[in-house]
Amino acid sequence: MFNKNGLALFSLVAALCGTAQAQLSDTEQKIVAAVQQRSPAALLLLEKAVRINSGTLNPQGVRAVGELFRAELDELGFQTRWIDMPPAMKRAGHLVASHEGGAGKRVLLLGHLDTVFEKTSTVPLWERRGDRVRGQGVNDMKGGDVILIEALRALKSVGALDPANVDVMLTGDEERAGKPLQVARADMVALAKRADYALSFEGSNKHQGVDTASIARRSSGGWVLRVKGKPAHSMGVFSNASGYGAIYETARILNAFREQVIEPSLTFNPGLVYGGTDVSYAEDTATASAFGKSNVIARDAEVLGDLRYLSPEQGERARQKMLGIVSNGNLPGTSASIRFTENYPPMPPTEAGQQLAARYSQASQDAGLGRIELLDPGLRGAGDVQFVAPYTVGIDGLGAQGRGAHTDEEDLEIASIERGTIRAALLIYRLTLLPAP
Q1: Which contiguous run of DSSP H or E holds residue 126?
Q2: Residue ranges per domain, the chain?
Q3: Number of H helices, E strands in the chain
Q4: Quick one: 12-217+347-433 is in which CATH superfamily?
Q5: What's the confidence (pLDDT) of residue 379?
Q6: Distance (Å, whole) CA 109 – CA 127
Q7: Scanning 4, 226, 323, 435, which has its CA 20 to 30 A from the CA of 393?
Q8: Three-point CA angle 54, 218, 227, nearest 5°
């Protein structure tokens, strides 16, 4: 059912949905009307949230956005609580909200309060540009947070929220997750274990003009390569006595990675390379320093890289190949070691995920908003939905549409708030209150 890039084939969608579009029920038409009536107010809520700087390392700002959204969820009848993280983690914590209905399916809705724009950012908080808005975190992902809340509000307005079982978790450290991850995501995992579905509201992408969602996302982890050589006068380089030095051995290893480890959906990027006679790295500022001379063979070299893969099996293959390259065939006079870390686990595609995507696409088509296709996982970064994927059926990309996420030009298409809210509200309604097709 999947191609070599891990993309779901939409023959299943056609089989599940049929060729004729189902009509919206009376209740669903009321849901759509409620969303459309609230569109101006939804934009105002988004502006309030975006005008608060909530860079991950600004805990006061993250909490302020959390309080803004908490008030909205309280008004909708949710039981809300703030989860503090240990002070050593230097993170604001998370907002959790729960709504207990009847005995139907339970959905977990995911968003995050933080952005990549810290307090020192010079990017405008909110800048209206016709039918678009530029701002800090406007599509990643405060636009998605607003869609999540407005979808619940539309359900509430027609009485469809009262019988529904819904949990919401808005994390305060998605952009720079606190360590240890087992603590930072423990509450999310607990919620996932009791959920039938998890819907994540990261930004929605278009691919070749068609709206997309994601049921597969690659891991996000890292590796540190450390290489040792013999410091000596450069006149002896390449000799058995002096060897090749740390920098040549580093180059050999990196080139061997490129030649021998490549496979579909797998990437490994050396983001920082430094070497010389003495080297050091400051993690808090992500800066390296090195001392060396052109006529001295390098003693030390280090490389910081990331590693992304689609399945645990692919990740293990990559690590074993990289370990083999590092440990074997070292140039004379050198040695090397490599250490791996994993931040976000992989989320491989599943048939259950395909079925959920099919229902999302059908809801969109029934509302006259067109089909939804699955995005190549190589075209997305990592996200919180990956922590819940082992325990429930997840889908991501239900948020707003924009451009330039994580850059000074991050913006949002205003109309995408209404589209996303309609789609999300219909999907939540169908998942919680209607039987699966």
Answers
A1: strand 126-129
A2: 12-217+347-433, 220-344
A3: 11, 19
A4: Zn peptidases (3.40.630.10)
A5: 84
A6: 28
A7: 4
A8: 90
When the candidates are 3.40.50.1820, 3.30.460.80, 3.30.70.360, 3.40.50.300, the CATH number that belongs to 220-344 is: 3.30.70.360
Q: What is the largest CA-CA distance in the chain?
A: 84
Q: What share of the chain is helix, strand, coil (3-state, %, to 5)?
A: 35, 25, 35
pLDDT in tens, 203-233: 988 888 899 999 999 999 999 999 999 999 9
| DSSP letters for 368-417 | TS---EEPPGGGS---THHHHTTTSEEEB--S-BEE-TTSTT-EEETHHH
Separation of CA 298 from chain center: 39
pLDDT for 18 equals: 40
- The predicted pLDDT at position 22 comes to 56
**Residues lower than pLDDT 70 in the chain:** 1-22
**Helix boundaries (H) for 287-369:** 312-327, 351-366
